[in-house]
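Entry 14. Ran structure prediction on the chain below.
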Amino acid sequence: MCPANRETPLPAVNLWTSAEHALDYLRRADSIPRRVEGEATLLEFLPADLRHVLDLGTGDGRLLGLTKAARPQAEFTGLDFSPTMLEALRARFAGDPSVTIIAHDFEEQLPSMGPFDAVISSFAIHHVADERKRALYREVFAVLAPGGVFFNLEHVASPTAHLHDEFLRAISWTDEDPSNKLLSLETQLAWLREIGYEHVDCHWKWRELALIAGSKPK
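Output, structure tokens:
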């Protein structure tokens, strides 16, 4: 996690290739307050008739698994680059023909794939630089089918350093993750509108956790 309202670019730090860093996150992931509320809200807004779903930065498959349970008829593609996460993901969905796993670092342009009825992501996109976030939102728009939806359950920047400190206390984390590159919710919503998404909104928010949403026009 990183300071709110930053004025200077953050160094290009990404610790997610480290098994130690990935495993430490997995040990703490279930303890993040209110996380299940954000996940439940995402599932509430998912269309009932999904056929093809892409999960960006799928990690160990937590959100993919929840979405699969809610929409069992769909086929899923999970994308991640952390060797530790990929190992856990492959073990979790071993032998499941409805799940395709792709090793890819979305610091790089998304591979040719799609179209998807939904693109979902959970606490992943904030690890890339702001200019890459914006480009990635464009690439997501391109792989969505007409009428497709994008849901990004994300860690966003607090408006002030004081609120950021309050957030860290609320989640009982005292350390900053140097891989995080937080950006304001308002900026990200504006980007989605500029790109051409419609029905852009924040469907749920608790402190620095937010569900960013938009859809591709039919």
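The CA atoms of residues 125 and 133 lie 7 Å apart. Will compare against last week's run tomorrow.
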